[in-house]
Amino acid sequence: MAAAMRSSLILFFAGALFLQGALGNFVCEELPTNVCAFAIATSGKRCLLENSAANNGKVEYQCKTSEVIVGNMKEHIETDECVDACGVDRNSVGISSDSLLESQFTAKLCSPACYEHCANIVDLYFNLAAGEGVYLPDLCEKHKNGPHRAMIELSSNGAAAEDEFAPAPYSPVPYSPDVY
C-alpha cells in the first residue's frame, strides 16, 4: 500500500513537473523534500537535500539547487525503482564517495538493475568515483570478481595512479558482467 502511494505521488509530481516544464522552469527549491535527492532541475543542475536547525530545535529539510551540472539530463525525478535498485536513500543529506567503500552499496550500484537502467544515479556515482581517481566500470568488474579486494584497492586509492583521472561520461558506460 505504501509503495503504491509513493508511486502515485511520484506520478503526480512527474505530471505536475511536465506541465511546469511546458509553462516554466522546474526549480529544486519548489520540490517536496521526499523527491528532492537525485532530481535534476530544468537548468541541468542537481537538486540536493539540506538540513538546518529550526528555532524550536527540530531539524528542517529543504530542497536546494547545487552547482553540479548534469550534461545530458534535465527535469528529472528519480524513480522509486531506481532508488531501490541502486541502494540509495532519498533522505540522504549530501552525497559522498565514501559509500563506494561499502561492499553492499557497490554491489547494488553495479547490479544490472541499477547500472543498466538508472543513468542518473550511475552518472552521479561515476563522477564521484572519478573524483577519487577510480573508473566505475573497473570498480564494478573488480567487485564482481572479488568484492573485498575491490574495496581494499579503492580505500588505498590503488585503483588509479596519482596522476591518472577517469574521464567523465556523457552518459554512463554500459556495464555487463558478460562483457569483461
Automatic annotation (TrEMBL):
Q: Does the keyword 4Fe-4S apply?
A: no
Residues in the signal sequence:
1-24
Key word Nucleus present? no
- UniProt keywords, alphabetically: Signal
Q: Could you name the domain of life of the organism this protein comes from? A: Eukaryota
Q: Read off the InterPro entries from this record.
A: PAR1 (IPR009489)
Instruction: Specify the protein name.
Output: PAR1 protein
* Organism whose genome encodes this protein: Anisodus acutangulus
Q: What is the lineage of its organism?
A: Eukaryota, Viridiplantae, Streptophyta, Embryophyta, Tracheophyta
